[in-house]
Each structure stands twice: as structure tokens, then as C-alpha cells.
Specification:
The chain is α+β, with helices and mostly antiparallel strands. About 40% of the residues lie in helices and about 25% in strands. The chain has 12 helices and 18 strands. The longest helix is centred in the C-terminal third of the chain and has 24 residues, at about 255-280.
């Protein structure tokens, strides 16, 4: 009779998971199957008992619309856990969805993407949350590394690769060579701050109060980081509450106004890219002249951002294929070739 080591036995029967636990969305990758779930990082609970009523899309639809007895919130803030219990409940819910609602006897190995600026306490919270949600072992990987792997950059070669990962809560810029980060800078500015900038602009200019979901829709529809004479002049009708009269009101917002609202946030992203370029070793800088900068994450889909960054830095800028899923696809590759990428993991 042939005996298997315990770890190998588990790996034969468990669906190991890669998780991009993002501020805006949580994406789950199942080893050898691909992306199994992409859902908003939102959970709805009963106010008194913290009993989970919904998570994901259904919970997001409740944001800003719940009675006092129900709380709908994002348990992740700036790429890290803001509410441990709710994050654990959300993870458990998503893992059960991936397993088609079934409870599994064999617990999966999990690899979770975390921001580069994460503290030891925050990292421990992520690992503990994964273990409480049912993992047999949990590891973390720095998100820019995972994004670079997912974007098919030559991270294992002695070649400089630059990735700018713009998520909901953070923007991370990393120079990578030989499976390691040479320089990395993270700022807690991302898609959520862009939405908030639009909310404040509309409030300041029109005395109109709008919600985060409305601001996100405006950003996606007509938001732009760079305008020129060839940019189409777009408009959108925006509904909200008039702060003076207190009644519902509709205004028309132009693409130029949205661009004006986003200028400061986008400038912060440009600044952190400049900082990374200034701190890149000369030999790797020469690689970047040829290879350029790769953008990943949902924030990279903001119209004109690649053009603006290229104009400001003088370096070619491209948006990765499937930028929303670069991190989770990278984690998936690590799962499937675990021994090759083991030394890139933490915890």
C-alpha cells in the first residue's frame, strides 16, 4: 500500500483558492479552474446581532438604502481589513458560493493578495481571517508582485519591470526584478478617492448631494484623466438631493467638469509614479525606456490615464490585458506553480 504525505493528500482533494481581497471587489480563483467569483466587497448584517443577511452584489445594492435595523458596509478600507468579524463572515460566504453552497470536509490552501504598505498587524488580521473562514493554511503575496505575474511581465528575469496597480483603496507602484521588489511605494488613494472627489465637487459647485454609487457611475461613464481637442464632449444627468431646498434635483454634468474634479487625485498617482522612477537603479531605468510602464487594477480603466502618465513621464505606458483580474490571475499562477513561486509569499 502506498502512503501519501498529509499535505499532498489534502492538495489532491481540496480546491485551493487564490483571493484578491480588494477594497471594492473580492475575486476568487480556484486552482485548475480559473476565476470562480467576482463580487463587491460589501456585506449586509442585522444591526443588533451582526447576522449576515447578504454579501456581494445584493449587499452593494443595499448601500445607502437600508433601514436602521440593517447595516450595509465595506469591511475593507484602503486595501486592509477594517472590520475583522465582517470580513471573516464575507469570506466564509464567498467560499461557500465557490463550492456551490456545499460545506467541504477538506479545507483549501489560500493565497491572498495584500498591499505592499501593509503592517504586520494588518497582515496577521488577513491570515487569521482566512483561517477562521476555513483555510488549512494561508499565505499572503504583495499585490504588485501578483499583478506583475498576472500581466505576464518577466518577473523572474534580471530585467526591470514597472507595474502601477490602481485599486479601490490603494495605488501601488513597484519596480520588479528577479522575483523581488526593488522599489515600491504605496499610497492610500484609488478609485474610492476618485468617487469621493466627484461627490465633493458636485456638492461644492451645485449644492447637490449624491451617493458614492452615483459618483462611481459618473466616473465610469464620462470620467477622464486627460482631455484634448479630440476628446468627445460627453454629458450625464445626475440626480441627488438639493442641500438648500432639501428636495430631489437633477443636473447635467459635463466631462470637463468630471476631469476637473479628478485632477487632484490623478495628480497624486502621477506623483508617486515619478517618485518610483526617481528611485529606480540606472540599469533598470534603461529597461523601462524600452519596456515601459504597465497599468493594472480597476483604476487603470479611467479614460486617458495611460496617455497622461506617458506624457508626464516620457515613458511608454500600456494597460495590461484584463487589468481588473491581473492580481487574482497572478495569484492563480502562484497556486498552480506553488514550488516555483514559494519564495515570493509571506506568511
Amino acid at each position: 500500500m502506498k502512503f501519501f504525505p498529509v499535505k499532498r493528500f489534502f492538495s489532491l482533494f481540496s480546491n485551493d483558492l487564490g483571493i484578491d481581497l480588494g477594497t471594492a471587489n473580492t475575486v476568487v480563483f480556484v486552482r485548475n479552474k480559473g476565476i470562480a467569483l467576482n463580487a463587491p466587497s460589501v456585506v449586509a448584517v442585522k444591526a443588533n446581532t451582526n447576522e449576515v443577511l447578504a454579501a456581494g452584489i445584493r449587499a452593494k445594492e443595499m448601500l445607502g438604502k437600508t433601514p436602521e435595523t440593517i447595516i450595509a458596509c465595506r469591511p475593507m478600507r484602503d486595501g486592509v481589513i477594517a472590520n475583522f468579524e465582517l470580513t471573516e463572515s464575507m469570506l466564509r460566504h464567498f467560499i461557500r458560493l465557490v463550492h456551490n453552497g456545499r460545506r467541504t470536509l477538506v479545507h483549501p490552501r489560500m493565497i491572498i493578495g495584500v498591499p505592499s504598505g501593509i503592517t504586520q498587524v494588518e497582515k496577521r488580521a488577513v491570515i487569521d481571517s482566512a483561517m477562521q473562514a476555513g483555510a488549512r493554511e494561508a499565505h499572503t503575496i504583495i499585490e504588485p508582485l501578483a499583478a506583475a505575474i498576472g500581466a505576464a511581465l518577466p518577473v523572474q528575469e534580471p530585467i526591470g519591470s514597472m507595474i502601477v496597480d490602481i485599486g479601490g483603496g490603494t495605488t501601488e507602484v513597484a519596480i520588479i526584478s528577479l522575483k523581488s521588489i526593488v522599489f515600491c511605494r504605496s499610497i492610500r488613494i484609488g478609485g474610492d478617492e476618485m468617487d469621493e472627489a466627484i461627490v465633493q465637487y458636485v456638492k461644492r459647485k451645485y449644492n447637490l448631494l449624491i451617493g458614492d454609487r452615483t459618483a462611481e457611475t459618473i466616473k465610469i461613464r464620462i470620467g477622464s484623466a486627460f482631455l484634448d481637442n479630440n476628446t468627445p464632449r460627453e454629458t450625464i444627468e445626475v440626480k441627488g438631493r438639493d442641500l438648500i431646498s432639501g428636495v430631489p434635483k437633477t443636473i447635467t454634468l459635463t466631462g470637463n467638469e468630471v476631469n476637473e474634479a479628478l485632477i487632484e487625485t490623478v495628480a497624486s498617482i502621477v506623483d508617486v509614479v515619478h517618485v518610483a522612477l526617481e528611485n529606480t537603479p540606472p540599469e533598470l531605468s534603461s529597461d523601462l525606456v524600452d519596456k515601459g510602464i504597465t497599468l493594472a487594477g480597476g483604476g487603470s480603466l479611467l479614460k486617458g490615464l495611460d496617455v497622461l502618465l506617458s506624457k508626464e513621464t516620457g515613458v511608454p505606458v500600456t494597460v495590461a490585458e484584463d487589468p481588473l483580474f491581473c492580481v487574482v490571475n497572478g495569484i492563480g499562477k502562484v497556486l498552480e506553480e506553488f514550488d516555483m513561486f514559494r519564495d515570493m509569499l509571506m506568511g
